[in-house]
Amino acid sequence: MADVQWPGGLSCPVCDASLAAGRGVLRCAAGHSYDIARQGYVNMLPPKAHIGTADTPEMVASRDVFLASGHYRPIAERVAELVATAVGERPGAIVEVGAGTGEYLAVVLDRMTARLGIAFDISKHACRRAAGAHERMRAVVCDAWGRLPLRDGSAAAVMSIFAPRNPVEFARVLADGGALVVVTPTAEHLGSLVRGLGLVRVDPRKDERLEAQLSPRFGCVSSEHIERRLRLSRAEVAAAVAMGPSARHCPFELLQEASGAMPEPLEALLSVRISVWRTLL
User: Fold this and answer.
1) Strand 137-141 with 117-121, pairing
2) Phi, psi torsion values for 217, nearest 5 degrees
3) In this predicted structure, which of 126-140, 160-174, 212-226, 242-256 has the lowest mean pLDDT?
4) Domains in the chain, please, with CATH?
5) What is the DSSP string of the chain?
6) Per residue in 17-29, pLDDT tens?
């Protein structure tokens, strides 16, 4: 992996010193080192880190199946447009926190020639896939609720798509003039699946909670609603459920069985809000 370029903004999670890439390793001046796995990702979690919220191999495989269908492609394309416009010529990496397998970040990097991207996720199974999702994407296993292994002001943009949000860290790592792009589901998102399978519901006051969470450090620049009618096969229904939070509350086999009893195709609504935020001075 010595010939692979790693973004310069990465920092050591132990001492916060800058990390430099060597042959198969990232190392800081103090001698702390992190092996670059054969698949191309780096694990920076502490040895006894709690990973109860990490995507399992089954969830990652389901995510691949569903996103390959293209149903969420409008989200990725609009995020790519917004990130490219917001960043402009500002230097720095494009960072996605809670990136999963990296599909959204890959679309952004396709649009932004020569820009490097970093996919952060707590699941090593997801990062294994993200490391190969784009030639300019690097994947790092870390906890989104902790300190991100990035130097202050090293990110041109941060993306949070259906993922946890850590406003303190987002503000710290963003460069002056950088942008935070957030995608959240509305209460109507995939409503037919939620009602038919008893899935985890989206809080109808999610927009208010997002504003309260981000407003101390960020100001909203724009907000828009994307809605599309979807027609899902039973296999896509099963994958959509198995890749999300409901998979943690119901065995995978039961989810498959329940989705197999639903009509085919199943009509569902894609309904999300995409907002762009800037740090407050």
Assistant:
1) parallel
2) -120, -15
3) 242-256
4) 48-279 (3.40.50.150)
5) -TTS---TTBB-TTT-PBPEEETTEEE-TTS-EEEB-TTSEEE-S-TT---TTSPPHHHHHHHHHHHHTTTTHHHHHHHHHHHHHHHTT--SEEEEET-TTSHHHHHHHHHSTT--EEEEES-HHHHHHHTTT-TTEEEEE--TTS--SB-TT-EEEEEEESS---HHHHHHHEEEEEEEEEEEE-TTTTHHHHHHHTPPPPPTTHHHHHHHHHTTTEEEEEEEEEEEEEEE-HHHHHHHHHTSGGGGTS-HHHHHHHHHTS-SSEEEEEEEEEEEEEE--
6) 999 998 899 999 9
From 215, 179, 150, select the one nearest 16 (Cα to Cα): 150
* Identity of the amino acid at 103: E
